[in-house]
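ARCHIVE RECORD
Type: protein–small molecule complex
Small molecule: cytidine-5'-triphosphate
Source of inputs: curated submission
Record status: active
Notes field left blank by submitter.
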Amino acid sequence: MTELPLSGRKVLVTAGPTYEDIDPVRYLANRSSGKMGFAIADAAAAAGAEVQLVAGPTNCQQQHAGIVRSDVRSALQMLDAVLEKLQGVDVFIACAAVADYRPARLASEKIKKSGTRMQLELVRNPDILATVAALPQPPMTVGFAAETCQVEAHARRKLQQKNIHLIAANCVAGGQGFDRCDNRLLLLYADGRQQDLGLQSKSALADELIQVIATELRAGLLATATP
Ligand code: CTP
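STRUCTURE (tokenized, with ligand):
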């Protein structure tokens, strides 16, 4: 049998948005369909990897029967699920659009309207990708950066601040990339290389990204910004 590019590798993927509940009927969320993350999980499975997928609320369905999927709702639940599944993982691909903040308090009853304004206090959610990258022996870490301007500069800053191996940047100005079947990705590597994957279907981009990851793993090119 021919060896597949990710045979014997374990891949953990996050996908979709997170929902941060305000009260029993309302939540805060990011605009994310989950399509890119699911395409990546499918591509990794097709490349022979053992794939675990931690998904926020989404209508997407994975195509490969072998993918082990866990559904979560909030960023805190996503972090717990990721940390629980990290054992033996070679690559962590953070594709989820995690809400950066959650309401400071979850109201147990539906909040009734009163004045003409209301204030909602938010607290910062943990950064799942940065948490994984800061572990003593992290897997290869791959992040995404969805930006509306200065795509490359913002993505490079995130690559460095989170101390990850690779970031896939895309422009979401004017709704580009959301809920569509195509996207344009620019890959930035911690060692300064970059590669424009151009505009393609999300499944073709996912296949290319998985090939890139397999090549990096084989070459052991796992440099991050800090030695
Ligand atoms: N990410 C994460 N946990 C978070 C926030 C983001 O794992 N709490 C991951 C995403 O899955 C993605 C990358 O980090 O891979 C996005 O980086 P980030 O700087 O958090 O992007 P934004 O949330 O869009 O940041 P900003 O609003 O500052 O642009």
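CURATOR ANNOTATION: The first strand starts at residue 10 and ends at 15.
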